[in-house]
Amino acid sequence: MADADRFRDSTQILLPVGALDGIRDELEARFTVTVRREGQQVRVIGSPVEIKDAGDFLAMNGVSFA
Fold it and tell me: How far apart are CA 54 and CA 46, in angstroms?
């Protein structure tokens, strides 16, 4: 059985509120992801392939995440 934490890490990115200011619309237009605000965090959810590509896009736009 696959490790649930590892799978979850490959299907979502957690960011602080405000991290997507100015790029959220482009992120959602370019990638098949769901963006949800949860308190003081924003969760970007998608398939492992979409999350990898979205992560590359975020990095190119100066958004850092672990």
Answer: 9
Assess contact for 19 and 63: CB atoms under 8 A: yes
What pTM did the predictor assign?
A: 0.84
Nearest C-alpha neighbor of 15 from the set 29, 46, 36: 36
Contact 13, 48 (CB under 8 A): no
SS3 content of the chain, % helix, strand, coil (to 5): 40, 25, 35
| Predicted confidence (pLDDT) per residue in 16-65, tens digit | 999 999 999 999 999 999 999 999 999 999 999 999 999 999 999 999 98
